[in-house]
Design a protein that fits this description.
Layout: E1 8-12, H1 16-27, E2 31-35, H2 39-58, H3 66-70, E3 73-76, H4 79-83, E4 88-91, H5 97-110, E5 116-119, H6 126-130, E6 139-144, E7 153-157, H7 164-176, E8 180-184, H8 193-210, H9 215-225, H10 232-239, H11 241-250, H12 257-264
Parallel strand pairs: 1-2, 1-4, 2-3, 4-5, 5-6, 7-8
Antiparallel strand pairs: 6-7
Helix pairs in contact: 1-2, 8-10
């Protein structure tokens, strides 16, 4: 049984996962520092949090007003300021091992010696990330699903060096902010859920290259006939085509040609205005 309490948390990265994770912690009553590399990115994440909290408050899904929850969140571009006196840091930066190792090396210097350092990585090795620090036993995976505020599951991923106390503290903390955590005791690429979910999106993308598939019809079939909340193309757009792309690349696997095309054109899905579908006409520069 873990004994540590977590009251103050820093979230590094204000993108779709980062701001959503920060929102979960703030709703759960924590003081949250949200940090990204540029002010515009942090402000954007903060505004998306406001949008989401207002929706939840309107529907009575949270007990407090959006403003009261937001009062517990501060924003910064300074890592040192973000992690000062925190109990936990959750890194939600892009899926690149060198970048994550750099961040964890810096965190090891700047965060309190007893703080837990967690990564929201969806597929990279927690062990390798932890080895960029002098406290690998205090490094753990804390993997949320998009949108964090609506998806209950959190994977608590052990690296080879993660202590039981660290994993148990994060597991208890996830429960305390209303999530349903599961332990992933083996640091395998993609952990549990993405090992099942990424192929769902990947197979659909391969079908586009090899068969005559209609995107809307395929999505509709999975939603209306199979009862899935989203079809494979809509889900890829929602989570970001680049996420599955990088996960597969990092695992040394060949990616579907359509993912290569979309990612190199910057058409990563909903967040960039265009993926398989068009969300923002200004982003649709080569027609659908
Ligand atoms: N905050 C607040 N409100 C939100 C919201 C958010 N983040 N997202 C959607 N809403 C609102 C909508 O605007 C809508 O509001 P309205 O009624 O006023 O119009 C309302 O919630 C209902 O939304 P939807 O009709 O879209 O549907 P649901 O709420 O039933 O479900 C969903 C939304 C939970 C996203 C559902 O479609 C779903 O479960 N999709 C699959 C998601 C999934 O599989 N995620 C995992 C992806 S993999 C991953 O994340 C791993 C990572 O490593 C990549």
């Amino acid at each position: 049984m873990a004994t540590e309490t977590i009251d103050t948390v820093a979230v590094l990265g204000a993108g779709s996962m980062g701001h959503g994770i920060a929102e979960v912690f703030a709703i759960g009553g924590c003081d949250v520092r949200l940090r990204d590399v540029e002010e515009e990115l942090v402000d954007d994440g903060y505004e998306q949090m406001r949008w989401s909290l207002e929706k939840l408050a309107e529907k009575g899904l949270i007990d407090e007003s959006a403003e009261t929850v937001l009062d517990r969140v501060s924003t910064t571009t300074d890592v040192g300021e973000a992690v000062r006196d925190v109990d936990l840091v959750v890194e939600a930066a892009p899926e690149n091992m060198d970048l994550k190792r750099d961040i964890f090396g810096e965190l090891d210097e700047l965060a309190p010696a007893d703080a837990i350092l967690a990564s929201n990585t969806s597929s990279l090795s927690v062990t390798e990330i932890s080895e960029a620090t002098d406290r690998p036993e205090r490094v753990v995976g804390m993997h949320f699903f998009n949108p964090p505020v609506k998806m209950d599951l959190v994977e608590v991923v052990y690296g080879d060096h993660t202590s039981d106390e660290t994993a148990e503290t994060v597991h208890e903390f996830a429960e305390s902010v209303g999530k349903t955590p599961i332990y992933v005791r083996k640091d395998v690429n993609g952990f549990v859920v993405n090992n099942v979910l990424v192929p769902f999106m990947e197979e659909a993308a391969w079908m586009l290259s090899t068969e005559d598939v209609d995107i809307r019809a395929a999505d509709a079939a999975m939603v209306f006939r199979r009862g899935y909340p989203m079809g494979p193309f809509e889900l890829a757009d929602y989570t970001g085509i680049d996420i599955g792309y990088h996960a597969r690349k990092e695992a040394g696997r060949e990616v579907p040609p359509v993912w290569e095309e979309k990612v190199s054109a910057g058409h990563n899905g909903k967040k960039s205005g265009r993926g398989y579908y068009v969300y923002d006409e200004d982003a649709a520069d080569d027609g659908e």
